[in-house]
Design goal:
Elements lengths: L4 H4 L10 H8 L2 E6 L4 E3 L7 E7 L1 E7 L5 E8 L3 E2 L13 E4 L3 E7 H10 L1 H24 L2
Antiparallel strand pairs: 1-8, 2-7, 3-6, 3-8, 4-5, 4-7
Length: about 140
Amino acid sequence: MAVDPKYLSSFRCFEDLSDEQRRAVAELAEAECFYPKYTLFEENQPGERLYLITEGEVEVLYSNGERGLTRVDRLGAGEIVGCSALVPPYKHTSTTRSLIEIDVLIIDAIALRELIQEDYSLGFYIQQHIMRLLMERISNLRLGA
């Protein structure tokens, strides 16, 4: 079931969209709850969903060769994970799993990519936000924040 379009306004990447654009994105979203240690997605899997964390906390892990997975970030409410689902080649570059019980909005990324093809201003705004978000995360990773 689709979510209330006004709820999407609480996420930075959707706050400045028009009501019509927000309504279109909300039609692609559904609310879910996951238990602790649930894997949302794994590195190299196809990116088919975008996750907006509404409650709880997740960890972002990268493969570190023979040493296995290494945590590089913790993200909580208001954050977005699975951004690789919007960037070619649409494969996840990390593994992300819940640390505690989490509530998320899941957006069908394949349908969102199609919507972006129909509404370039929507796509431009979302892509600008995603790029800024990823650059902040890279900077924080470099600085050890």
